[in-house]
């Protein structure tokens, strides 16, 4: 049976992951409205992955005999100054999520909950990748600047991002293995 403090913290994290999905879908709509379909697609894949993250915590709580409680989701921003500004915000958001995951690990250690700590290590690694991909695209957008052709080339490239169906379903990684 999971400890109540950890149960509450994981419920908060489910909310944070669904908020991430909502934010990235809002960013996808921003790109869609500007004719940047590749960027919009990249954000849709990101949205699906965030639902997968929420789903992973959701399944884990049930596996541990905990209770899942859905909380209200905050409304995300709906406009940004530029594609570069969108990715500045993605990076900031992922850094915030990394902080939340680290706090969860600290709590699991303090509560001597080794199972939660083991499950969370998947997210520690995932956050390294999340921050790295946001930073990589942000750096490229800085180089592209006002070059419309460069932006269209990047749009075409991001349109090829594949969705990992296991990650979407929250089934990738050790928590549900
Ligand atoms: Fe669920 Fe992008 O971290």
Description:
This protein starts with a helix and ends in a 9-residue tail after the last helix. The protein has helices spanning 4-33, 37-63, 83-110, 114-144, 148-158, 165-168. It is elongated and about 55 Å long. By secondary structure, it is mostly helical. It has 6 helices and no strands. The chain has a single domain (4-165), classed as Up-down Bundle (Ferritin). The mean pLDDT is 95. Helix 3 runs antiparallel to helix 4. The structure holds MU-OXO-diiron. MU-OXO-diiron binds next to helix 1, helix 2 and helix 3.
Count of the domains? 1
Distance between termini?
19 Å
Question: Fraction of residues in helices?
Answer: over 70%
Determine the strand fraction and express it as a percent band. under 5%
Spans of at least 5 consecutive residues whose pLDDT stays below 50 are none
Would you identify the CATH architecture?
Up-down Bundle
Estimate the global geometry from the Cα principal axes. Answer: elongated
Q: Report the bound ligands by name, code or SMILES.
A: MU-OXO-diiron
CATH superfamily: Ferritin, core subunit, four-helix bundle
Query: What is the overall pLDDT average?
Result: 95
Global structural class:
mainly alpha
Radius of gyration: 17 Å
Query: Helix count?
Result: 6
SSE series: HHHHHH
Q: Can you identify the CATH class?
A: Mainly Alpha
Largest sheet: none
Count of extended strands: 0
CATH-assigned fold name: Ferritin
